[in-house]
């Protein structure tokens, strides 16, 4: 882990929980990448544990400028809300990309509006959005 300390870009693409294990190990050993600016995480299968480790990672890495995540699955609305809070807390962030990200719960329209408004207020460009996997008879996706 010490060899990662000078890392500026962190790109990881995997099929299963390897990324979750890496982030969990970083959390367990309290490893922070002080120079990290760009993150690109992609996985074929996501787990709720990954999202928890990701939220920790975001709160600990305040130097992030660009953040891209592909195929994240949020288990609950609370988990998505905490993820959004971690994103908003990044003082240097200028761009976020959410590709093929989903939530098991129904989306809270008010939460989405607040997140979007906060991104605009901070001048953060956002490409993509989290989509609900549940049927919404009111079509509020």
Could you characterize what this model shows?
- The chain has helices spanning 18-28, 48-60, 77-88, 109-122; strands spanning 9-14, 38-43, 66-70, 73-74, 95-103, 125-132.
- Strands 1, 2, 3, 4, 5 and 6 form a six-stranded parallel sheet that branches.
- The mean pLDDT is 91.
- Helices cover 35% and strands 26% of the residues.
- It is globular.
- Helix 2 (48-60) runs parallel beside helix 3 (77-88).
- The termini are far apart.
- By secondary structure, the chain is of the alpha/beta class.
- It is built from four helices and six strands.
Keywords:
6 strands, 26% strand, 141 residues, six-stranded parallel beta sheet
Uncertain residue ranges? none
- The average pLDDT score comes to 91
Radius of gyration: 15 Å
Number of helices: 4
The proportion of strand residues reads 25-35%
Number of strands: 6
Distance between the termini: 40 Å
Sheet having the most strands: 6 strands, parallel
Percentage of helical residues?
Answer: 25-40%
Structure classification? alpha/beta
Order of helices and strands: EHEHEEHEHE
Shape: globular
Protein name: FBD domain-containing protein
Organism: Acrobeloides nanus
Concise synopsis of the structure shown:
It is built from 4 helices and 6 strands. With 141 residues, it is of the alpha/beta class. It is globular and about 50 Å long.
